[in-house]
Specification:
Rossmann fold, single chain, 4 helices
Length: 115
Amino acid sequence: TDARILDGMRPLLEGWGCSVDTLSGAEDLDRSGMHRPDLVLADYHLDNRTGLELIAQLRAIHGEDLPAVLVTADRSSEVRAAAGRLDVPVISKPLKPAMLRSMMARVRPLAPAAE
């Protein structure tokens, strides 16, 4: 994932009271002491895999109930079907902050709700 996108998302999410950890590659999952995230926001197109593969791996580590949202510019039915099989909602790019906040509240009711 482009570092500029990660850097741009951080102040938005922190402004909503979220604590943000970013992953940019497969090696990051091997970090010792990684805590269970409250919510995963994953871009579909990552360097070495898809966001859905990353979500599946995180769920294998942290539990199948780990809330996740996929963000993608890919509007194909294949991507949406694959996300549906993992029970992962999809937000299309360009990302609108109000839509993201609403989706975060929907998949994880304790996350900051849209105002």
